[in-house]
């Protein structure tokens, strides 16, 4: 079996060799392709070496950078031996250029994005990675200064048209439009919270309802708009104590105006459901599918819904209390989940009632407190009859829409909201976007911009893996790409003889 090996020379250059492993595990040099000190020239020599192996042994790994079709095929056939030849810079860098981010012409931005994909961490770890693996010496202060100037202005109201965030979104949108077939007919919107390891608040980092469960930590809201397949369109950040409902319209209108795409069908969950949002969407000419709250409808509508006697698998349509289309469905899976949640809520209430933690101030319609009632002047108890009556709603899900789509299409479109859940999972876990240790707004925006770009690259890798019908998951492919950088040539060991990558 032949493979490509880099060998450091005394002069500081690197020789690219074709090596064959014998039965007794010795490595015999078959051919020396050439020597170079420039990374791009070394990559060219490695391509020649692979072509030599191809001529001798048959098909091998194609050139990832020169041919787009070769990239798709290579990603789909990643294996340990092949990845050790490619390297994170070549794989992620090729994807970076494929999407179009290379047109930004910013070397440090490129390095920070690839580092986020390969080794997400603090800026100190980033500086160490850049020096160890790319031989790029940047101090932590230089990285911080770069972040300070990455997104000009102080927030979306004063942002300049030429800042990096704007350029990144423009490149991302062009790529997304190409991937989805040239027209964005449907988009998905959601928000998530990103917390800070800090105690003090400021104008941006504010304490509020935390979806991460970090209620004592200051946070920001990240709003994300994606097309089908989870392909990103744009993003924005908001103050940590803002209401979710007030973020949808400004962001959708701003992106539609900037990119000039036709008004797509906007899909969002019930957190964005409000009379003001619906009125603004309709005034802007947008079609929408929003998660509804059937139990919050008027008494007449609720009576009508329960009178339908929906069985598992049934789909029905009626009119909401505001006169809009209300699509209803009932599933056994959701019914089990609703029943389980109600029982958990009841158990928590019973525990608090026994320990005397609840007073009449807790009697309201917030969550499962609606099952509380007041006996006499002071005693708080649980209304079991109301709890049991609520079982009639188990499994019922509603959707408010102004589209002409069939009920099944509406339900299917809403079900694709998992695309955006996947986007947040990629950012929070794979790219370690949280917790955020920055304090200044421009640095926070720069950090989010880098993570957004890295997410787009990761999603493109996943798309190519699926297109090639590879059995690899994107996480496994990402891990394989990382492994090839375990044996770099640090500057202090470049002159060491017989050093093998």
List the helices and strands and how they pair.
Layout: E1 2-8, E2 14-21, E3 27-36, H1 39-57, H2 68-76, H3 80-86, H4 88-99, H5 107-118, H6 123-134, H7 140-148, H8 164-179, E4 186-195, E5 219-227, E6 232-239, H9 248-259, E7 265-268, H10 275-283, E8 287-292, H11 299-307, E9 315-319, E10 325-330, H12 332-354, E11 372-375, E12 379-382, H13 384-389, E13 396-401, H14 407-415, H15 418-430, H16 441-467, H17 474-483
Parallel strand pairs: 4-7, 7-8
Antiparallel strand pairs: 1-2, 2-3, 4-5, 5-6, 8-13, 9-10, 10-13, 11-12
Helix pairs in contact: 2-16, 4-5, 4-16, 5-16, 8-16
Please tag this protein with its features.
single chain; 501 residues; 43% helix; disordered C terminus; 17 helices; 17% strand; alpha+beta; 3 domains
Q: Explain this structure to me?
A:
This protein is α+β, with helices and mostly antiparallel strands and 501 residues long. The chain folds into 3 domains: 2-102 and 467-493, no CATH class; 124-263 and 417-466, no CATH class; 333-393, no CATH class. It contains 17 helices and 13 strands. It has helices at 39-57, 68-76, 80-86, 88-99, 107-118, 123-134, 140-148, 164-179, 248-259, 275-283, 299-307, 332-354, 384-389, 407-415, 418-430, 441-467, 474-483, and strands spanning 2-8, 14-21, 27-36, 186-195, 219-227, 232-239, 265-268, 287-292, 315-319, 325-330, 372-375, 379-382, 396-401. An 8-stranded mixed sheet has the order 6-5-4-7-8-13-10-9, with helices on both faces. A 3-stranded antiparallel sheet has the order 1-2-3. It is elongated and about 90 Å long.
């Amino acid at each position: 079996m032949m493979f490509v090996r880099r060998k450091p020379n005394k002069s500081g250059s690197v020789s690219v060799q074709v090596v064959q492993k014998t039965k007794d595990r010795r490595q015999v040099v078959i051919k020396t392709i050439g020597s170079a000190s420039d990374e791009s020239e070394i990559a060219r020599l490695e391509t020649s070496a692979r072509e030599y192996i191809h001529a001798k042994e048959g098909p091998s790994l194609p050139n990832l950078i020169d041919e787009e079709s070769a990239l798709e095929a290579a990603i789909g056939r990643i294996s340990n031996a092949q990845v050790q030849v490619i390297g994170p810079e070549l794989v992620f860098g090729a994807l970076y250029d494929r999407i179009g981010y290379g047109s930004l012409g910013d070397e440090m931005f490129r390095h920070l994005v690839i580092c986020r994909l390969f080794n997400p961490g603090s800026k100190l770890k980033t500086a160490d990675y850049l020096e160890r693996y790319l031989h790029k010496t940047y101090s932590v202060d230089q990285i911080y200064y770069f972040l300070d100037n990455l997104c000009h202005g102080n927030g979306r109201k004063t942002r300049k048209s030429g800042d990096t965030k704007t350029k990144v979104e423009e490149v991302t949108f062009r790529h997304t439009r190409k991937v989805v077939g040239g027209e964005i007919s449907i988009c998905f919107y959601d928000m998530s919270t990103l917390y800070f390891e800090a105690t003090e608040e400021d104008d941006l980092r504010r304490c509020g309802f935390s979806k991460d469960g970090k209620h004592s930590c200051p946070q920001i809201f990240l709003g994300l708009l994606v097309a089908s397949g989870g392909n990103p369109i744009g993003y924005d950040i908001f103050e940590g104590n803002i209401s979710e409902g007030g973020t949808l319209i400004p962001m959708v209108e701003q992106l539609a105006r900037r990119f000039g795409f036709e008004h797509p069908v906007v899909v969002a969950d019930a957190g964005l459901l409000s009379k003001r949002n619906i009125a603004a969407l309709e005034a802007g000419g947008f079609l929408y599918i929003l998660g509804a709250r059937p139990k919050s409808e008027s008494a007449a509508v609720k009576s009508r819904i329960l009178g339908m006697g929906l069985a598992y698998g049934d789909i029905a349509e009626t009119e909401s209390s505001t006169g809009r289309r209300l699509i209803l469905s009932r599933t056994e899976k959701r019914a089990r989940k609703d029943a389980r949640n109600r029982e958990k809520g009841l158990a928590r209430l019973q525990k608090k009632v026994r320990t005397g933690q609840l007073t009449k101030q807790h009697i309201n319609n917030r969550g499962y407190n609606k099952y509380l009632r007041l006996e006499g002047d002071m005693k708080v108890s649980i209304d079991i009859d109301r709890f049991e009556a609520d079982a009639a709603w188990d499994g019922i899900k509603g959707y408010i829409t102004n589209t002409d789509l069939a009920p099944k299409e509406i339900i299917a479109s809403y079900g694709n909201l998992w695309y955006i859940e996947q986007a947040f999972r990629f950012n929070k876990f794979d790219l370690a976007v949280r917790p955020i240790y920055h304090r200044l707004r421009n640095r926070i925006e720069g950090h989010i911009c880098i993570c957004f770009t890295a997410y787009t690259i990761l999603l493109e890798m996943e798309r190519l893996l699926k297109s090639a019908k590879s059995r690899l998951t994107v996480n496994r492919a990402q891990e394989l790409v990382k492994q090839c950088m375990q044996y770099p040539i640090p500057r202090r060991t470049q002159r060491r003889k017989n050093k093998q990558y």
